[in-house]
Design goal:
This protein is of the alpha/beta class. The chain has 9 helices and 7 strands; from the N terminus they run E-H-E-H-E-H-E-H-H-E-H-E-H-E-H-H. The chain has a 7-stranded parallel β-sheet with strand order 3-2-1-4-5-6-7, sandwiched between helices. Strand 5, helix 6 and strand 6 form a beta-alpha-beta unit. Helix 3 runs parallel beside helix 5 and helix 5 runs parallel beside helix 6. The longest helix has 29 residues. 41% of the residues are buried. The mean pLDDT is 94.
């Protein structure tokens, strides 16, 4: 298992769940930090062989070399693309450079890393690429349209990549969680149907077993977002979301 965004709470919950099943080797890719090393230590305590590698989503020129080192060590059965930046909508509207950082992290960095991993998985002839999208990408809301637009781009990219890899032995799965209770969302008003990293991890495991292409967490969000997506724009603007 290769985790891009090695200190992500959702990613670590997923790693713990898969280690409890049969995953034995985990690579945590992320910016060097105490949090990354702590995460590695926690997973080693569960019996996994855990490695860390320096990875920066904002440095696409390094992705091929960095991720190539991981794949050179042996086949990877699953890549979990879990890095992302929520940003601060009010600040990001005032400071375009901050908004660009959100877009480059969530979209540009993910496109680069996703393509590098997809090519490596295709060379193996097997493996899954799991992409953490968000329901925020289904329809941009006034409250977080910068983050939402970046996730919309990521979601579309992942779907297209899945189509491009169909029949190659590589499986691409897009995961669309709603509000997840993590450090990233601490202090924000909690949305209806809020969920946890553990619930997302459970959905990821089930999706992998079923070789699903899209997973909603919780599942009820699929119906909710279908309704919101088709709501007339004038009515959508008046919603308190």
């Amino acid at each position: 298992m290769l985790v891009l965004g090695g200190s992500s709470e959702i990613a670590l919950a997923t790693a713990r769940r898969l280690i409890a099943r049969r995953t034995r080797t985990v690579w945590l890719a992320g910016r060097p930090s105490p949090a990354l090393e702590e995460a590695a230590g926690q997973l080693r305590g569960l019996g996994a062989d855990v490695h860390t590698i320096a990875f920066d989503a904002l440095d696409p020129t390094s992705h091929e070399a960095v991720l190539g080192k991981v794949f050179a060590e042996g086949d990877i059965d699953m890549v979990l693309l879990a890095f992302g930046l929520l940003g601060d909508q009010a600040r990001d509207e005032r400071e375009p450079e901050a908004a660009v950082r959100v877009a480059q992290t969530n979209y540009t960095g993910a496109v680069s890393a996703g393509l590098v991993c997809a090519r490596a998985l295709q060379s193996q002839g097997h493996g899954s690429l799991v992409v953490m999208s968000s329901v925020a990408g289904e329809r941009a809301r006034r409250a977080n349209f910068i983050y939402g637009s970046s996730k919309a781009g990521l979601d579309a990219f992942a779907q297209g990549l899945g189509d491009a890899l169909h029949g190659t032995g590589v499986h691409v799965m897009v995961v669309r969680p709603g509000f997840v209770r993590t450090r990233m969302t601490a202090g924000l008003p909690e949305s209806p149907l809020a969920t946890t990293p553990e619930a997302v991890a459970t959905a990821v495991e089930l999706g992998l077993r079923r070789r699903s292409e899209t997973v909603w967490v919780p599942g009820a969000l699929r119906v909710v977002m279908s309704a919101l997506r088709h709501l007339p724009r004038a009515a959508f603007r008046r919603l308190p979301i």
